[in-house]
Write the structure tokens for this entry.
Amino acid sequence: MKAIWYDCVMAELKTQKNKASAVAFIGSVTDERRRADGKKLLKIFKEVTGEKAVMWGSSIVGFGLYHYKSERSSQEGDWPLTGFSPRKQSLTIYLMPGFQNYSALLKKLGKFKKSGGSCLYIQKLEDVDEKVLKEIIRRSVADMRKKYKV
């Protein structure tokens, strides 16, 4: 019986870090409220993380970097510690550890559409308590730095 060998090549993630300007991206957001919220989030994330803003793909503003290796597959790569995107439907906040450790803070956050996986969806920044949002971001980044030794 003849053995057949297959080359397994993992597909690269579509969303990659790039040299585009996060400030220019936020400035190009057409919805006035979304643009203003994006500018405010840019300041919040810089302040809380101490990291500079880096574009990931065409619409994610990321802060910090960690290298992950999937436990369920052979996939690995780099990804931001945290970030956001001023999407058309809502502001999306990316918290990489998920939300299971932040449920008490989520109850204090204020009005948000939903949370799932690593995404928190907010309609308007004025609907949430900024201090609580900062604490959620701070804790999630601290948890990621511990887990991934970044």
User: Anything to note?
Assistant: The mean pLDDT is 88. Residues 95 and 137 are 7 Å apart (CA to CA). The chain is about 35% helix and 25% strand. The first helix runs from residue 22 to 27.
